[in-house]
Amino acid sequence: MSAANSIIGAILGAALSRLSGMPLVGLALLSAVAAVVMLLIIKATSNQARLAVVKRSIHACIYEVRLFSSDAPAVFRAMGELLRHQLTYLRLSLVPLFVMVLPFGLLLAHLDAYYGVADLPPGRATLVKVRMKDSTGPPRLVVPNGVSVETPAVWIPSLREAAWRISTTAPGDYELSIATGDAVVTKRLTTTAGIVRRSPVRPCARILDQLWHPAESPVPRESAVESVSVIYPSRSIDVLGWNFHWLLVFFVLTMGFALALKSTLRVVV
Amino acid sequence: MSVARALAALIVGGLVAASCGRPAVPGRQVIVLGFDGMDYGVTRDLMAQGRMPNFSGLAASGGFSPLASTVPPQSPVAWSSVITGLEPKDHGIFDFIHRDPATLVPYLSTTRTEAPSRTLAIGSWQLPLSSGRVELLRKGRPFWDVLEQNGVRTTIMRMPANFPPSGLATRELSGMGTPDLLGTYGTFSFFASSSSRFANTALSGGRLETANIFDGVVRGQLTGPDNPYRTPARPVTLPFTVYVDERAGAAKIVVGDEERVLKVGEWSDWVPLEFPLAWFAGLPAMARFHLKQVAPAFELYVSPLNINPAAPAMPISTPTSFASELARATGPFHTQGIAEETKALSEHVISRDEFLAQARTVGDEVTRQYWHALDRFESGLLFYYFGNLDQVSHMMWRPRDPSHPAYDPAADAPYRNVVDDLYIEFDRLVGETVRRTAGRDVTIVVMSDHGFTSWRRSFHLNSWLRDHGYLRAIDPSLEAQSDFANIDWSGTRAYGLGLNGLYLNLQGREHKGVVAPGDRERLIDEIRRGLLATIDPATGRPAISRVYVPGLPAGGAPNADRAPDLIVLYAQGTRGSNESALGGLPRDVIVDNTGEWSGDHCMDPDFVPGVLLANRPLRQKVSRLGEVGRAVLAEFGIK
Question: B297 pLDDT band (50/70/90 cuts)?
């Protein structure tokens, strides 16, 4: 899992490195690529001829309803047929859907590290939270130059959690150290502006946690630390003065590109 | 392919449009800086001492003069006159609070909020079938409407008595008069454990909630306004949790998705909140938390719930998106019109230092937005209001007045220069404004709505009316009972409401009126003479300087029933009491003012003139507030 995350992260990092100041443009380009990949997967994994027939049948049923709107038995029969063809359409779409779930799930989790998380500008305070595997006491937080710890650790035994408020003085990438005995776990902190990869959580080694939080390698299994979090503000994408969640923008753009390109790529969807 | 082309054009066009701005339009420029409560005498003295060189520079080039305030010299009244050029009898704002003569319930004078008139009830839920309404009660045409009609773009920032915004300026942000989420001028919450010194006490202007620590955890809830989707009405609440680490002297506060870690004595930044109304709707707000202590008692102060400018629950700007644009550009900010936490200091829930720290935060927000507005100002009118000086003067006047009855040399001396320092800070702001606009054809006007003086003696007007047989209490022993609940209306001919207003209990107007209209003039004259003859035993001088009868326009006015029958203008150093303003009946009539609120201006306006300065002689002479708007029009050549 960790290796897959590293590869996807490196590819996205290279692709988005020149677009960090243009979130909408970057998202549009990624949507276009995602749309092409999606269409190609559909073309390769679905029964295109059968899909075309089912789509024509659906259209026929819709025409039948409109043409014979005064003939109730005909309308009911057409609607029944319509329902049957739609279920067939869904069945034919299941295979490409299953094929796409994993790569697109991974892609979305990675993109969230770029587009779901906003800048943490220097001077703005945030929290570092460390979840321990037991409730023996708080670890120590050691910070590099440029990061200041503004509060002592608030130790919450019932949550096995220690929390600090920190801030930075300059933009950059920092490495926080959480020390428990002789062992040290690190956590990345990014205060660079623009669309860059940020890691809100360094997760535990469980597969699902790694899937959700792919931007940083998991905490070693033998550590007394379970996970480390840094709270970043959430980001919205500005489209003509309106702010939307990036996932909605990505979905709409991807669908738009897919509809626009399906004829060119000769894909039936 | 046509769909593909259209889609591509839409995307490309959108991307281009999203990155484009509007071109600048050069033209005549006027900047009006309104400093609420800037006193003529204090300004003159500081200028004479050479401590306000930038003001002196303006005075030398354009003039410096006192500016006569309104009757009464209260901010909503005064700024309404600035806005409309009208007298109070015409714009209809006579005090901070008015009363509904039908119910005798007081309300905020400048705004009325109405719930949806039609709803569909389903069990304990109801669906509004019409929208609610927030109405600005100030009458008259704002001077910026005339400018806009003449093609002059106007930006009106934080103008008092302009909530909801008039909608007539190019850009507006509402100021004093903008309520908190509860619809009040600001209601704080204070969470204290049973061992706190505040436990089982009553707080004015705030809610006291018991919050004990169990196993290191405090659970509480913020209380919002009534939920419009529930029937019968019940307040909406938002739970929060505080994880206390007594050893560290710090705590983590969790409310909704937001988390903050605070040390004892720290204020949080703005915490966005969303009160759940129904599964499909939430009510956005924001608040700041102040962790006072965690041991031996737990005490947490929560600011009034402010309208969140990023998602305003009520209209606070023109256009609607302007508030959120400002928040994005300069950070979240206090939207509550009177943002300084004076009530909390008056109740000693926060200390002077904590108050000043909070007032500094407010001032910094306002100043940050001012530079943002000034840097984008290219033509037309920029009006910008600063309320910080007024609020700090209210709370910090006593340290500069050793004659004040509650003056304590040890406690007050460290704060002696707080007010003066703020004047000097605003002098620097004016200097920086002049520097940033150098070389431009810009008129800079500096003005205030009233001045300030010491509030040494409190006059319980309703107690005076009681003692002179004009008002009857239901239970004379209930001195502190407010909201007029202890007044026997059948035996009451006159009552005081607000800081300067006196009303007759008039038949045909008041719900339980007893004074026949034919007796009105005689009774007014009798009360007027009695008030003017009242001598303050502590000073041996009259407690009241003038009693003013506001004449209503011929043919009446749409707001005539709001007008007091008499406006009581107190002598210098004396002010109407807070208790009497809301119907309280303390035993004595005139007492020392021992509260933290020690400076004021709600007296005879002759004692508290404001200021007027400009960087060049104004085309039209201005000597009183109502002339400011016309003078601004004249600067643009508009009569």
Answer: very high
pLDDT in tens, A192-206: 888 889 999 999 989
Query: Which two tokens mark B570?
Result: 């107190």
Beta strand pairing status for A237-239 and A242-244?
A: antiparallel
DSSP annotation of B553 = P
For residue A100, give Cα distances in angstroms to A198, A212, A215, B133, B633: 25, 17, 21, 50, 66
Q: Tokens standing for A262? A: 């399906």
Q: Which residues in A lie closer than 8 A to residue B261 (C-beta atoms)? A: 127, 151, 154, 163-165
Of A155, A152, A149, A147, nearest to A173 by C-alpha is: A147
pLDDT surpasses 70 at B552: no
Identify the helix (H) or strand (E) that includes residue B382: strand B380-386
The answer to whether the Cβ–Cβ distance between A154 and B245 falls below 8 Å is yes
- Cβ neighbours of residue A33 closer than 8 Å, sequence gap 6 or more: none
Residue with tokens 């840097």: B375
Closest by CA to A237, choosing from A38, A6, A9, A31, is A31
The pLDDT of residue B13 is 44
Name which of A216, A185, A254 is nearest A109 in CA terms. Answer: A216
Q: For A19-68, how does the pLDDT look when each residue is reduced to its tens digit (9 = 90+)?
A: 777 889 999 999 999 999 999 999 999 999 999 999 999 999 999 999 99
A chain contacts of residue B14, beta-carbon cutoff 8 Å:
24, 239-240
DSSP for B68-111, please give it: B--SS--HHHHHHHHHHS--HHHH---SSEEEETTTTEEEETTE
User: How many Å lie between the alpha carbon of A2 and the closest alpha carbon of chain B?
Assistant: 29
B23 pLDDT above the threshold of 90: no
**Interhelix angle B388-396/B418-436, nearest 10 degrees:** 170
Give the residue, B7 or B151, on which the prediction is more confident.
Answer: B151
Question: For residue B504, what are its two tokens?
Answer: 């007759």
Helix (H/G/I), strand (E/B), else coil: A129: strand
Q: A161 with B217: CB under 8 angstroms?
A: no
> For residue B488, how many other CB atoms are within 10 A of its CB?
12
Q: Which two structure tokens, joined as six digits, stand for B454?
A: 């010491």
* Closest to B312 in 3D by CA, of B285, B345, B349: B285
> Tell me: the pLDDT tens digits for B136-190?
999 999 999 999 999 999 999 999 999 999 999 999 999 999 999 999 999 999 9
Q: Which two tokens stand for residue B622?
A: 């201005």
Per-residue pLDDT, B479: 78
Handedness of CA A265, A268, B5, B10 (dihedral sign): negative
Q: What separation, in Å, do the N-terminal and C-terminal C-alpha atoms of chain A show? A: 32
- CA A89, A90, A96, A100 dihedral sign is positive
What are B's interface residues with A at a Cβ cutoff of 8 A? 1, 3-4, 7-8, 11, 14-15, 17-18, 215-217, 243, 245, 247-252, 259-263, 269, 321
* CB contact at 8 A, B54 and B44: no
pLDDT mean over B500-508: 96
Nearest to B109 by CA among B137, B139, B81: B137
- Phi and psi at residue B310, to the nearest 5°: -75, -25
Q: Which residues of B touch A165 (CB under 8 A)?
A: 260-262
CB atoms within 10 A of CB A181: 8
- Residue A74 confidence (pLDDT): 93
Q: Do A154 and B321 count as a contact with CB atoms less than 8 A apart?
A: no
DSSP state at residue B307: P
B379, two tokens: 């033509």
d(CA B397, CA B631): 32
Give tens-digit pLDDT for A148-199: 999 999 999 999 999 999 999 999 999 999 999 889 999 999 998 888 899 9
Residue A39's alpha-carbon distances to A31, A36, A90, A104, B4, in angstroms, are 12, 5, 16, 13, 15
